[in-house]
Amino acid sequence: MTNFNTDNLPGVHISPNIQRDPDGYELENRAADPDQLVEAAMASISFWDGKIVLDLGAGTGYHIERFHRNASHVIAIEPHGPSRLRAMKRIADMQLERVSIMTGSAERLFLPDKSVDMVHARFAYFFAPGCALGLVELERVIKPGGSAFIIDNDLTYGTFASWLRRSIYYEGITAEVVEKFWSEHGFSLIRIPSRWQFTTRADLEVVVRNNFPPTLAEQIISEHTGLEVDYYYDLFYRHY
Question: Is there a domain that residue 184 lies in?
Answer without folding.
Answer: yes
